[in-house]
Description:
The complex is a heterodimer.
Chain A: H1 23-42, H2 47-51, E1 70-75, H3 90-101, E2 106-108, E3 119-121, E4 124-129, E5 135-140, H4 154-165, H5 174-179, H6 181-184, E6 187-194, E7 197-202, H7 209-212, H8 221-227, E8 242-248, E9 252-257, E10 270-275, H9 279-287, E11 293-295, H10 302-307, E12 311-313, E13 320-321, E14 324-325, H11 336-345, H12 348-354, E15 359-361, H13 384-393, E16 401-408, H14 417-429, E17 433-440, H15 442-451, E18 463-464, H16 478-481, H17 498-508, H18 513-529, E19 537-539, E20 543-545, E21 549-550, E22 566-567
Parallel strand pairs in A: 1-10, 1-11, 16-17, 16-18
Antiparallel strand pairs in A: 2-3, 4-5, 5-7, 6-7, 8-9, 9-10, 11-20, 12-20, 13-19, 14-18, 15-19, 21-22
Helix pairs in contact in A: 11-13, 12-14, 17-18
Chain B: H1 2-29, H2 34-39, H3 45-55, H4 61-73, E1 79-80, E2 85-86, H5 87-122, H6 127-141, H7 144-158, H8 174-205, H9 208-215, H10 220-247, H11 251-256, H12 262-271, H13 275-303, H14 305-311
Amino acid sequence: MSPDEPIPSRRRVRRPGRTSPGRSRAWRLFAVLIALGLIAAACGGSSGDSSSEGGSADTGGEAEGGTGGTLRIAMSAGNVPWPSTPPNEGYEGYRFVGNNIYDGLTRLNLDQTEELPTPQPSLAESWEVNADQTEWTFTLRQGVTFHDGTPFNADAVIFQFDRNKTPEFEFFDKINSARYNATFRYFKTWEKVDDYTVKFTMTQPYAWTLYDLLTVYFPSPTVVRAVGNDNYNPSAVGTGPFKMTKYVDGEVMELTRNDEYWGTKAKLDKIVLYPQAEAASRLAALQSGEVEWAEVPSPDAVPQLEAEGFQVMMGQHPGAIMPRFNEHRAPFKDNVKLRQALNYALDREGTNALMNNVGEPASQYVYEGHPDYVEDNPGYSYDLDKAKQLLAESGFEPGQLNLKMVYTTGGSGNMFPGPMMEKLQADFKAIGVNVNIVPVEWNTLITIGLEGLDKPQNADIDILWASPAAGMIPPGYNVTFLCDRPGPQPNAAGLCDPVINENYLAAMQAATPEESHEYVRKMMTAALDNAHFLFWMQDKNLRVLAPSVQGYHHAQSWWVDFTTISVDG
Amino acid sequence: MLNIFIRRVMLSIPILLGVTVIIFLLMTVLPGDPATALVGEDATPASIARVRADLGLDDPLPVRYVNWLGDTLSGDLGYSPYRRRDVTDLITQAWTNTAILAGFSALFGLVGGVALGFVAGIKRGKAADKVISVFSLTGLSIPSFFLAIVMLIIFSAKLGWLPSSGTGLDDGTFFQHLIMPMVAGSLTTLAITTRVTRAAIIETYGADFVQTLRAKGLGNTEIFRHVFKNAISPVLTTSGLQVGYLLGGAVLIETIFRWPGMGMLVFNAISSRDLLVVQGATLVIALTFVLINLVVDLVQATIDPRLRRVVA
């Protein structure tokens, strides 16, 4: 089914929270609930039948005089993302909050599903770059104002760069500048040429400046000056298609359409964001009509949701599960055959079947169809004989290897680690490799990655779970593939392949995007041939929408264009 | 009575200090780094080091603890860089939400439990007693998170009768939002109170003084009044523990029903290594627990003069 295709609303449910009965009614209700509920459920009472009275899923749009309704979203984040620059809660924060409240100088074209989104003009109308790509000059869009009426101009750009790059600046933000480190790392100087022109000098020839600028969001300097960095979040003001009109930390955020937006105005009147870490709760909220959008439901619920007429969205997505071998030491250092053996031992189809096929077996680091996908390279099939043969050639007998693999129990973009890891353990056991699987929480896994597997506290880890935004934006390859990471960030798993390094550095300086992808494909070929990763599973970015949601595009990105979406009343 | 009060308050000080020391030590031995959690995976070692220094994480452990304790005693629980808010604000917001839920849960669990326990005790061995006993055993056996998810599926997802999450405090739908977390969260309290009350009633009705009262010719109502006063003491003891537990916030119930209380606050703070929030929230939870039990002790001493000597 095409994402644009309207789905007839076959299931209208009452939103319980909208009526306002008094206390007595509530208690009467409670008194009969348990008995009636169990009877009704036991009798197979159709949800459609029992819920059809009392109105439809309340989108609120018409009542508020708008045209596109209200979209209520159950996020998988544990809290409402910071409306800061940058937001927190991973890419969920960028998806729901950052890209809606703010604009960058560039913005991805997320209103299509056919190709990998690329940076387009946003607050910058146009740009010029010198021959060696060390100087980038941007012409800013005129007539843009922040939600508080402050004009957007070169001063606002310089203000945000100083806020993140100049420790002496009065409004330097220590915390956010550290969080923005990867984004700003190649910017050496920034200067105002005139009110609507800014020029950036890069630390080296750099082709991916437009990608880095996607997430350099611009807050209103007036607000930052008035409230300071520490108190900015409750007052967040940007130039984006939605304004923050309510923010209760830990509970809810409400975004209202910016009627003065310089670009295509959003159809939705409002977006309401609820943090709902528990998958069962998100599902219940969707099925009861309290939200129209639920992130990552349990895969077990997919058939039921489809049967009930919900829009189950999956597709090509630059997110994957690609565990990394510890190449700082034996047994994986300089042992290609062992790394290949384990890749051949992985039953990817079987793992995917365990998850109701909400993923796609990974033949490479990126999905087929991605510009960095290497044609005519099938990757690693499930071939136990070959795996056993390679294991023997790698110098190990069955039963001889006892590995330790650390994985996360949750966190954004990690699919379903529990069942996946149990399957992996069984797969490796089938060729005589024992794996001790060790669950850690997401924060611990990130810390291990930042410390590196060569540090004493992590040195006993042989394989580390990784869930990269594989191929979403080319600078994202940085921290995984390079021998010497900029920053300098540690080389977590010890991956240092001269062919990869050479091609990646060339891609960063390529003259055109096509040339850049060509270099990255050479890099990918080397990664694949030398089995530097456990090429395991592509995430199809499972998400469920109510039938009333229209105009959604399941873009090849972690982000979504909310301006095209509406909710039928 | 004043002596009892002063004594208990003095005793609670080392308890609270002990709790904070234990939590402080536990948080420092947890894997994962607070500065890394704050600035994310894109940060460089240098920027992480700057943030660590800024948060005071480079100071020796005793120094950090003493600094925190000094600030706390002066009424400042600190600032959460992870939430970019004062810890006091965060705790006040979360504690209020938890107190509302805990209050209704306690009312439901304790009043319901005492009522059922009395009926079961008075009707000992009869059908009502057996039904209530089965019910209370079942209540004790069902994990609250399991009941919560089953209720969600039935009453929210399938029937659409009750909202699945949130408090409803801001749109007048509080009671609809309250029902499921209250029932799921207080089932254990209800079951324990039922069993304790039943046992106390049975034991008290079997006491010699009840025979004496009957011999004196007192009516059932009068006898019940005497039995009630004697039987309520163990119920109050367990009630104190139960209310203290409820006020600590139930992580699973609050997470499942998105009830932004102390459980969720502490859980999120531990995940993000937000040390000051964990420290502050734990102290408040411990303080609440101590105060509730102090109140219970004082009430017990008021009801039962024999206990004044024991408590003192």
